[in-house]
């Protein structure tokens, strides 16, 4: 079996990019070795494809969930009978919902391509939709809480699947997606707990600026956090 420096480096970046979350440590346990897709045995490949299809279905469902959230937040923003503070929170939440929906759409596209590369047929987005839980009341706060709940479930699902995936490229893709879901969850829970200042002018695109932790462009995905410059630390204040 021959080594592949590019994939080895990619796995190292995966570990570094997710080391801030204890749930991601499992992604770094396997040795840094190259295993081409054709070397994965058929049973392992079938199990991998099934897991990927489950995650892809979840991504499509989240895309629809954020579409519903966007509609509810627009209605709240434009409802003059609501308190001004809630309408301002709706503006902030709306920017996040739109940005996060775009991330999940990018994740779904890359998962579908990954499945195609494995010779499998991805589940169709047309077959999936999001159903809010029973008792859900569409206030701005509840929309944020519901989004945080779904992002948390997604992180857990990706963590469990990562533990069983053997193909390096697939593990890299999942880890790079999972880290962004963790960022979504952190931002949403911060808003729910009022840890972020209510600022309607906040640029949602800068809160979680990239759709992937590490670049997945070579695999058909998009830019990662490596494209972001370091924050300046020489300011006077």
UniProtKB/TrEMBL annotation:
Transmembrane segments: none annotated. Keywords: Signal. Residues 1-24 form the signal peptide. SUPFAM superfamilies: Ferritin-like. It holds the Pfam family Ferritin_2. Residues 218-237 are annotated as: Disordered. This is Ferritin-like domain-containing protein.
């Amino acid at each position: 079996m021959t080594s592949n420096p590019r994939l080895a480096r990619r796995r190292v970046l995966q570990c570094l990019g997710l080391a801030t979350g204890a749930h991601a440590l499992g992604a770094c346990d396997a040795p840094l070795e190259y295993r081409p897709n054709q070397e994965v045995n058929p049973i392992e490949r079938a199990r991998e494809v099934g897991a990927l299809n489950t995650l892809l279905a979840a991504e499509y469902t989240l895309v629809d969930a954020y579409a519903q959230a966007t509609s509810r937040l627009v209605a709240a923003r434009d409802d003059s009978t609501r308190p001004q503070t809630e309408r301002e929170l709706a503006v902030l939440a709306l920017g996040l919902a739109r940005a996060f929906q775009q991330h999940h759409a990018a994740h779904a596209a890359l998962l579908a391509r990954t499945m195609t590369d494995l010779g499998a047929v991805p589940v169709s987005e047309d077959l999936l939709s999001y159903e809010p839980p029973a008792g859900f009341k569409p206030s701005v706060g509840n929309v944020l809480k519901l989004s945080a709940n779904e992002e948390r479930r997604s992180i857990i699902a990706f963590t469990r699947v990562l533990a069983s995936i053997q193909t390096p490229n697939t593990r890299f893709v999942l880890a790079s997606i999972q880290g962004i879901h963790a960022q979504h969850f952190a931002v949403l829970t911060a808003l729910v707990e009022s840890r972020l200042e209510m600022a309607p002018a906040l640029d949602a695109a800068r809160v979680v600026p990239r759709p992937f932790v590490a670049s997945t462009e070579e695999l058909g995905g998009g830019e990662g956090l490596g494209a972001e410059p370091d924050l300046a630390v020489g300011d006077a204040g």
